[in-house]
Amino acid sequence: MMKMRNRRALMLAGTAVALSIALSGCSAINSILGSGSGDADRDEETGQVTESANVDVFSVKVGDCMLDTGTGTLTDANVVPCTDPHDQEIYHEIIMEDGEFSEDAINAASEDCIGDAYTSFIGVAYADSAFDVTTITPTKKSWEQGDDRILQCVIVDPAGQTTGSLEGAGR
After folding, report:
1. Are 45 and 36 in contact (CB under 8 A)?
2. Which partner from 5, 78, 97, 167 sits 20 to 30 angstroms from 88, CA to CA?
3. Can you give the residue range of the structural domain that contains 89?
4. By C-alpha distance, which of 82, 45, 75 is closest to 157?
């Protein structure tokens, strides 16, 4: 199960506030049981998606571009080559430490998505940027039953779809 969380800049204070979208699924359980939609075709050298595909959410990697995941159950994602129009791009990944599942720990870790990782990827600080950030995070069930410890940082252009990576966009 995964959750998608949004982060949006508050220009008054130059900080970020978390807005949650309740998206969860059971893909951890599906992947343990062997069901799910697998991985996309990828370039052997770069690892980039070469053909649009619907994949298990646990197959999504840093550098992948996706169509909007929408709302509801997040068990899979529609990945596309970044050269195609897309809504989201995964730019950073955080591996959580083992221990008890904690929403507070996940929220604290997700702050890293709008820190140095963001600035390095985009080229400007989050507070000065035009983009939004969401995170794909473990749920209690995927944490406990699927050993899911990966939090992924996802960049979104609120103006709409983009073509090509947003890396180095500088805005």
Report:
1. no
2. 97
3. 2-156
4. 82
